[in-house]
Every structure is written in structure tokens, then in C-alpha cells.
Design goal:
alpha+beta; Methylamine Dehydrogenase, Chain H; 28 strands; WD40_rpt
């Protein structure tokens, strides 16, 4: 079966070359087909290891041209790499006092403008100068700030989210941040969770007015920035749509660690203690979904693991599922790979990279990438190149240079069963499960209230009551 697939891929590549030579296939379409070739994906191998950080590397991303890779780490430094040579072009202190969780180069800025967020809750702007870099504080979250999302094509506008549930809109032209809303649970059934700890935010590249956020519950929420009035006269906290697999509705044991939009407005969602799902716009639950128990929802869902791209005339479309990896221990991202988002890629607790075909969900590659956990995988914007990072202090660059094509491990899904926990490993991880975090905060709040009551006769009790 493997040989048959390889021959088909090679034969198709030969036909593409012939069509390009005789003028039946444009150079651009040829490049796209080549970059999406399964034969190349099967030949991905480590090209270089970028070694300069002194801690876990929590973020990697390419600039728009693809010639520079930016990374951020537990060592609180940001490094700009010439990834082809493996040389660090610039390394500087981010200004953060804790682990850098995300660092991105702003588009159309001559690669001199970067934005970062970190475990200290700060959102910072770095300006690259001839003598180095200058950084300044733009905004602050009360809790760790995991992700930021840049408005496509804008050198000024981006959004941030954090564990305080807050979503902020930031404009570099004024260096001003606008607090849009705090993300709250869908109903009152989870009193222990006054707000959703947000782990991920992403913007739809086809319609930059739309952005999605997700975190410590089962829902991905879609918002439309056009509904926000800058004078604060409207309540912007209401999503325009919700997304969740039917069998996970009402499941308080899961959360979401990663989101990504494709150029076709498909939404990729990675759950901890569960799988990865691909939603199209017609799979939304609407602005006012009705919560239900996971048991009743399961009765409506088809068996997970079959082809979920099919639709029924009388039922809502079911999202495609991607299985095999393990996402229990860390806050992992998820991404598309290929010029037309032909593949889905994710890291795993087993220290491997998993690659699936987007259509059909077939697992085609499993690659050893970290001794512990792989958290970040970033696709090159133009060619078949991946950058990955995790608990180890290096960054691995993957290119299709392998001579032999490897085979998949046997029974890969049985090798890495879920264990329904989210323990700490590395700087960007939760020390305990999200629900336990909220329970501890609630207990701490109750303790402080009790202290205040006991000291109500003391004039100085105000200092002991501050949160």
C-alpha cells in the first residue's frame, strides 16, 4: 500500500513537470502543487537545529517573506534567525520578566517591528534599530497572556488574549490598547468559572473582521469587530457564533489549547484530552447555543473516527476529526501546512510531530522532534518547510531532504491514550488543570473574605482584603 502511494505521487510529479514545460501549467500553480506534494511531506527531515536559547522555546514564526524566523523562550529573549544558514541575526532581551509565549513580526514593517506577549501578562512592542532593539509596554493582562493575533496585512493592528479572559485590541500608531470584553461561560452552570481562561486567538484571513477565541471550556467563540462601537455604547461580549463537536457539549473536562484559520475560512480547533477538529462556517451552533449533557449530545453524533466530512440532509455537518497525537500536558498550538492548507500539523506529549491530510483526516507522518513535548509547529509561508519547538532549548527546521520515506508506527492511536489530565511540563504549561485553578482561586477568595470578616473591627483591615 505504501509503495502504491509513493508511485502515484511520483507519477503525478512527472506529469506536473511535463505540463509546466509545455506551458499547460503555470509556474505559480506548479510551485503550489509541488509544495503540497505528499511525496515531499513524506521526505521531511531535520535540516538544521537552531541553538542559542537557554530554555524552552515557546514560540516560532516566519516573517512574510519566509527568510527570517523569530523565536521566544523561557530565557525571556527574542531571537531573529537566518534559518537557512542557522545563524542568529539578532538576539535581545524582550523586556518581559517571565517566559515569552509568543513573538511575531508585524507585516510591511521591513521586519523591524515585533510584538510579544508572555507569562507576566505583558504585551510589548519591540522596534529593531541599527544598534539593537528597544521595547516598550503596550498592555497588561491579569494572568498569563498566551497568544496574540495580527490583523492580516496590517502593520499596526493586533489582538491579544489572556488567562484573565480579556481580549484587547491594540493599535501601534497610537500605542493604545482597547479592552474589548471579558469572555464568560455560556451559562450559570459553572459557578466556579467566572470567566474563561483564554489560550488561543486567531483572525479569519478571508474576512479580518472576524476573529475566534478559545480556552478553558469546550466552545470556540467567533466575534465580529464591526459590532463593536468605539464609544463603548454596545455590549460587544456576545459572539456571533459558537463551535463545538456535538459529543463535547457540556463536557467540563475538556478545554481548547490551539486555533487556526485557513485561507478558506475553515477553523481548526485542538482540544486538550481529546482530538483536533476542522469546522466550516456552516457548522456553527449560532449565537445562542443551548447547552446539553455530553451523553445526550453523543446520541446525536456519529461514531468518531469515521469520515466526518460527509453531511446529512437532515442533520448539521459533522467536523472532520484528526486523531493519534496526545494533548494532555501542555498548551499546544495547531496549524495548517501547505500552500492551500492541504495538511494539518500538531505537536504531541510523546515528543513527536503529527501530520494529517486535511481532507479525510488520514495520518501520514509521525516525526521524532523533542525528547519531551512538541508545542509549536510553524509552516513556511511559501515552501515545504516546517519549524518546530518544545521543551528542549533548540528549534528544529524540517525540509524534504530524506532519501527514504518512513513508515507510520503500528497502532499509533493505542500507543498514546489520553489520561484526562493537564499537568505542568515546561514554562508555558498549566501547573494544574484549568478547573482546579479556578477552584483554588475560589478557595483563596473565600479564605480572604473570612479573614476580612474576622478582622472587621480592625481599621487596617483594608490592606488585608485587597486581591
Amino acid at each position: 500500500m505504501k509503495n502504491k502511494r509513493a508511485r502515484t505521487s511520483v507519477d503525478k510529479a512527472v506529469v506536473d513537470v511535463w505540463q509546466r514545460e509545455v506551458g499547460e501549467l503555470s509556474t505559480r500553480n506548479f510551485a503550489h502543487r509541488l509544495a503540497a506534494s505528499e511525496d515531499l511531506v513524506l521526505r521531511l527531515e531535520i535540516y538544521k537545529k537552531l541553538e542559542k536559547h537557554r530554555g524552552c522555546v515557546n514560540t516560532v514564526s516566519f516573517n512574510a517573506d519566509g527568510n527570517i524566523l523569530v523565536s521566544g523562550s523561557d530565557d525571556k529573549r527574542v531571537i531573529l534567525w537566518d534559518w537557512e544558514t542557522g545563524n542568529a541575526k539578532l538576539a535581545f532581551q524582550s523586556g518581559h520578566v517571565s517566559n515569552v509565549f509568543q513573538a511575531k513580526i508585524m507585516p510591511y514593517s521591513d521586519d523591524r517591528s515585533l510584538v510579544t506577549c508572555a507569562a507576566d501578562g505583558q504585551v510589548r512592542h519591540a522596534q529593531i534599530l541599527e544598534r539593537g532593539a528597544e521595547t516598550k509596554l503596550l498592555a497588561k493582562h491579569q494572568g498569563r497572556a498566551h497568544k496574540l493575533a495580527i490583523e492580516p496585512g496590517s502593520p499596526y493592528i493586533f489582538y491579544t488574549c489572556g488567562e484573565d479572559g480579556l481580549v484587547q485590541h491594540i493599535d501601534l500608531r497610537t500605542a493604545a490598547s482597547t479592552e474589548l470584553f471579558t469572555c464568560c461561560p455560556i451559562d450559570d452552570s459553572r459557578a466556579y468559572m467566572p470567566f474563561i481562561h483564554l489560550n488561543a486567538i486567531t483572525i479569519d484571513p478571508r474576512n479580518p473582521n472576524l476573529f475566534a477565541v478559545a480556552g478553558s471550556d469546550e466552545y470556540t467563540r467567533l466575534y465580529d469587530i464591526r459590532k463593536y462601537k468605539w464609544d463603548g455604547s454596545t455590549d460587544f461580549g456576545q459572539p456571533t457564533d459558537y463551535f463545538c463537536p456535538a459529543h463535547l457539549i457540556g463536557d467540563d473536562q475538556v478545554g481548547i489549547t490551539g486555533l487556526a484559520f485557513s485561507d478558506q475560512s475553515e477553523l481548526l480547533v485542538s482540544y486538550n484530552d481529546e482530538f483536533i477538529y476542522l469546522f466550516t462556517r456552516d457548522m456553527g451552533l449560532g449565537p445562542n447555543p443551548i447547552p446539553s449533557s455530553p451523553l445526550s449530545a453523543c446520541n446525536k453524533a456519529s461514531d468518531i473516527g469515521l469520515d466526518h466530512s460527509a453531511t446529512d440532509a437532515n442533520e448539521k455537518a459533522i467536523p472532520q476529526v484528526y486523531k493519534g497525537h496526545r494533548n494532555c500536558e501542555t498548551v499546544k498550538g495547531v496549524n495548517f501546512f501547505g500552500p492551500k492548507a492541504d495538511y494539518v500539523v500538531s505537536g504531541s506529549d510523546c515528543g513527536r510531530i503529527f501530520i494529517w491530510k486535511k481532507k479525510g483526516g488520514e495520518l501520514i507522518r509521525v516525526m521524532e522532534a523533542d525528547k519531551d513535548v512538541v508545542n509549536c509547529i510553524e509552516s513556511h509561508p511559501h515552501t515545504t518547510v516546517l519549524a518546530s519547538s518544545g521543551i528542549e532549548s533548540d528549534i528544529k527546521i524540517w525540509t524534504p531532504k530524506a532519501i527514504d520515506k518512513p513508515t507510520l508506527p503500528a497502532n499509533v492511536e493505542q500507543q498514546y491514550p489520553f489520561k484526562r489530565s493537564m499537568t505542568s511540563k515546561g514554562a508555558d504549561l498549566s501547573a494544574i488543570t484549568m478547573s482546579m485553578q479556578m477552584a483554588l482561586k475560589q478557595a483563596l477568595f473565600s479564605f480572604l473574605v473570612c479573614c476580612c470578616i474576622q478582622q472587621s473591627s480592625n481599621r487596617n483591615l483594608g490592606a488585608g482584603c485587597t486581591d
